Amino acid sequence: MRFYKTIIIFIxxxxxxxxxxxxxxxxxxxxxxxxxxxxxxxxQTRAFDTTDKNKTLRTVISTLQDLGFVVDKADExxxxxxxxxxxxxxxxxxxTVRPRGETQTLVRANAxxxxxxxxxxxxxxxxxxxxxxxxFLTAHNVD
Length: 143
Known about the structure:
Distance between the termini: 78 Å
Helix content: 40-55%
CATH superfamily: Kinase associated domain 1, KA1
Radius of gyration: 22 Å
């Protein structure tokens, strides 16, 4: 019985040593900003000449649905919409809407393929092209 306890303690010690080697400095990771992150944020963000947050949120929801997404959550107070597209893969898009200055609204989209952040510009360009057309139609009261 004592032999088994010794083996368990030895294996537990090995696991702790292995796990401690995987730890990264969280403060270093938080402060680490690369140029690619700034470029990605630039691809993910567009400004629109409107101050109507509610109408912008409704237009974002319509655009996501037109692109085949199912809206999971929408929060008007936070200005956030989360939607998922299931088409042989799982693409999740979270869009936030917030005011920018006195005359604009800022829309930022963040996409994830399964659990990996999407950094390719094509998905964001497609979304913002469709959203821009919808915003134009909404602004001119075209149904």
